[in-house]
Amino acid sequence: MKTFILDVDTGVDDAFAIMFAARHPEINLIGITCVDGNTNLKQVVINTLKVLDAADGKNIPVSAGATRPLIEEPKYAEHVHGKDGLADLGTPNSKREVDPRNAVELLRDLVESSKDPVTLIPLAPLTNIALFVRTYPETAKKLEKIVLMGGSASGGNATASAEFNIWHDPESAAIVFNSGIPITMYGLDVFNDLKMNQDKANQLLNSGSDCGVFAGKLIDHFIQRLHRDVTLGDYGAVAVALYPNLATVEKYKVVVDTTYGPGRGQTVCDKRPYASLELAGWHKDAPEVEVVLKIEVDEIRNLWMKTIIGN
């Protein structure tokens, strides 16, 4: 059993991750914090509660956090996730109550009260996590590790060089990467590998499982909207946190570009095998990060299907 906290900006791919984490018998999901990202914070909270209903999740505390990035105005991805951030399915609102604590306070309380090591899994811009690290640094150091969905050792999606979650709030990402907490970066190098096609959507829609049908509707909507197979995306970070043996990682020194040029939001990974790094200088105090470069696609996808359908 592993103890996880998720930090989300619940769009469709966050939903895939939340459903899995809430249902898998080897995960003790002790809390979910919400942040502005794919859509506005109010809608993120609404979506997160809806997904927990669909997953038949236990009474997991959900709290609201940052309403915007530290510096810039928010930039949403509703053109991908729908106007409501959750595929515009018209899913009824949940009757679950939101935890009255803000995200930073909930993170503090959950980490301090946990009898077991806690892994924090941010699947969103890192604003909440940066605020937590800055507000309660001693508590943050008690985390076993951070396994985040974000960044890339290759190219970007929000820009040619930057992945959306890091690009949305580069300053927060820089704070988190330099926090001293062990980090595994599950980025665009593997994010798109967990493809789901129409056959998989139909299998879920015909599964007889409420959670499976909900997941199938999300995948079907994505396929119709984007006219291509879609990815389980954020879920992969949860799978890798649960079963690290399903990923191939390399340790690189990583710097988050917080400048205002074309590289803003890029996670610059130094993959050079030779030792003349002193020629560059930027790397001197750069943190060493585990970067996921390959995953066991079939095994991770099958694990998700089995957990969501429930057999």
Indicate the topology:
Blueprint: E1 2-8, H1 12-23, E2 27-34, H2 41-55, E3 62-64, H3 78-81, H4 103-113, E4 118-122, H5 127-135, H6 137-140, E5 145-149, H7 164-168, H8 170-177, E6 183-186, H9 188-191, E7 195-196, H10 198-205, H11 210-226, E8 230-231, H12 235-242, E9 247-256, E10 267-270, E11 288-295, H13 297-309
Parallel strand pairs: 1-2, 1-4, 2-3, 4-5, 5-6, 6-11
Antiparallel strand pairs: 7-8, 9-10, 9-11
Helix pairs in contact: 1-2, 1-11, 1-12, 4-5, 5-8, 10-11
Keywords:
globular; 19% strand; 13 helices; 9-stranded mixed β-sheet; alpha/beta; two-stranded antiparallel sheet; 11 strands; 38% helix; 311 residues
Largest sheet: 9 strands, mixed
Number of helices: 13
Low-confidence stretches: none
| Average of pLDDT | 93
Basic shape: globular
* Helical residues, percent: 25-40%
Structural class: alpha/beta
Q: Kindly provide the radius of gyration, computed on alpha-carbon positions and rounded to a whole number of angstroms.
A: 18 Å
Lateral arrangement of strands in the main beta sheet: 3-2-1-4-5-6-11-9-10
Strand content bin: 15-25%
Strand segment count: 11
Tell me which oligomeric state these chains represent.
single chain
Sequence of secondary-structure elements: EHEHEHHEHHEHHEHEHHEHEEEH
Span of the ends, CA to CA = 19 Å
